[in-house]
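Data card: per-record layout.
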Amino acid sequence: MKILITGFDPFGGEDINPAYEAVKLLPDRIKGADIVKIEIPTVFEKEGKILEKGIVEHRPDAVICVGQAGGRSAVTIEKVAINLMEARIPDNEGKKPLDRPVCADGENAYFAKLPVKAMVQKIREHRIPAKISYTAGTFVCNDVMYRLLYMIDRTFPNLKGGFIHVPYLPEQVVNLPDGTPSMSARMIADALEFAVEAVVECDEDVSVAMGETH
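The structure for this 214-residue chain is written out next.
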């Protein structure tokens, strides 16, 4: 099994993004699955093109995109992406779309093609805060999740895919209001690794049920 994992570059004036910092800490193999790591830009549409190129090049069985959700206190596995671009701040190329669809011919929303509940449970079993989220926002995180699921729907029907939001790093909240939650890059990376384990285990369960072997 091969899993492609992406993380965004810094945005919004930050010089670091917990998403890719954690992705970089992941091992190259998790529970027998090969892990491919890619940094993608915090830019509407461009991230989707780079992601598609990575899918074509590496031919993964699953894709997990990771992004920052400053203010959240847990690793959150996203359940749904919506067909809307509504930017509160500009992306890294100054784009600030408002009330625009991600894909004009796409569905209003797509659900993640990952075992979301199993991923949350696996992370929580290791005493790391994790929850299901039902909103990926309307910024670039939702954009890439929607584009991924659109590609799955239209082009890569056998691909699994979804999105994980992660909290700020401690160094990002030094000058933020008291009580702003954060999580270390190491703990975030551990959570991602456990989430990947859940994806692999669910894939193995399906294969066994179908009489397949690895």
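Known properties of this structure: Residues 185-209 form the longest helix (25 residues). Residues 3 and 187 are 20 Å apart (CA to CA).

See the next section for split statistics.
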